[in-house]
Structure formats: C-alpha cells, structure tokens
Amino acid sequence: MPLVAVTGGIASGKSTVARRLAEHGAVVVDADALVRELQAPGQPVLAAIAERFGAGVLAPDGSLDRAALGALVFGDRDRLAALNGIVHPAVKEESKRRFRAAFEADPDSVVVYDVPLLAEARGAGEWDTIVVAHAPADVRIARMVEHRGLSEQEARSRVASQASDEERLRLADVVIDTSGTMDETIAQTDALWESLRA
C-alpha cells in the first residue's frame, strides 16, 4: 500500500492533515517526534551535536538545549548545514526502519510521513504520493503571530528559512488548500483518504 509524505511550510496545517489521516487508520510517522527521540540523552545524534557545537548546547540535565543550539545555527548557513548533516541521515534511516515495520505489521496499511522539511531534506524519490498542505505565506505568518505568539518579524524569518512555496508545490502530487476553514481542510483530507484507499 502507499507510502505518503505530507509536507508543508511552518503553520501550513500539515499536522492537521496527518492527524486526520491517522483518524482514518493511517500509520503516521512524525519527523519532528523522530528528531526529538534521536536527540535525547544517550543517543549518538546528541553526542555528535555536542561534539560539533560544544557543551554549551547541552542543558544541565544533559538534554539538548534547543534554544542555545538554535541561537548558534539560526541564520548561519554553514552551521545549519553541519547540524543537518548530523540529523538528517539519522532521521532518514530511522524513518525508513519505521516504514518497513509498519508494512511488515500490515502490508495493506497506508503509511504517512508527517515531514516539514521534505523539500529541504528528502526530495521526491521514495514516495508513492506527496501531499502538500498549502496556505500562502501571509496566512501562515498571521497564524504564527496569532496562535504561537511570535512577532511578525520572527514569523517572517521562520518562513524565509524554509523552502519556498514554489519549491514545495513543485513536489506535490496532491495539494490541500489549508487557507480556508478547518472543515474545508478536513473535507479535502477525507477525499484524499478515499483516493489513497481506492
């Protein structure tokens, strides 16, 4: 059965789409959750991050201090590339392991990868279907200001740090327009589910 990537820029509603697919019975592998697991104390990824960026990126309890790491890499292409070079291969390997496990458990399952940085990190190669949750940048910026308490400048810089809408939409097999109401997004996702099961 299909291996589906669900992607979208920050505050695009991608996780809403993935959650709805899970409600229908899809097995969802969440890239952000995977990253957090792989960066936990005792994991080789965290050790490699500390080795590359120094002990200052570790909190007193030995966990990753995300704010400290973010301050080092945000806006610095070389450092960000170094961090991605540590994290992305580990996430790719672990996500593939989970996809395999899901299909071994149920060959008929629909497996969904909820992944923000598909355009940046994975590309189009391994997916049966790529779904892009899409809302224009101005809508996403307004959502971050309203729902996440960011300043407009912070929201704009987060949008700017990701792939452009055009880059993401180029990868899309299916686009779910998330700029309308929640009900409209859910209806489009339900239609997607029917087509995936067909």
Automatic annotation (TrEMBL):
Enzyme Commission (EC) number = 2.7.1.24
Q: Which GO terms describe its molecular function?
A: ATP binding; dephospho-CoA kinase activity
Q: Which locations, inside or outside the cell, does it occupy?
A: Cytoplasm
Predominant location category = cytoplasm
Pfam families the UniProt entry points to: CoaE
Which top-level group of life is the source organism from?
Bacteria
Q: Does Lipid biosynthesis appear among the keywords?
A: no
One cellular-component annotation, GO:
cytoplasm
State which pathway it belongs to.
Answer: Cofactor biosynthesis; coenzyme A biosynthesis; CoA from (R)-pantothenate: step 5/5
Which InterPro entries does this chain map to? Depp_CoAkinase, P-loop_NTPase
Swiss-Prot/TrEMBL keywords: ATP-binding, Coenzyme A biosynthesis, Cytoplasm, Kinase, Nucleotide-binding, Transferase
List the catalysed reactions: 3'-dephospho-CoA + ATP = ADP + CoA + H(+)
Which annotated residues bind ATP? 11-16
| Example GO BP | coenzyme A biosynthetic process
Name the protein family.
Belongs to the CoaE family.
* Role description: Catalyzes the phosphorylation of the 3'-hydroxyl group of dephosphocoenzyme A to form coenzyme A.
What is this protein's record name? Dephospho-CoA kinase
This protein's species is: Microbacterium album
Lineage at the top is: Bacteria, Bacillati, Actinomycetota, Actinomycetes, Micrococcales
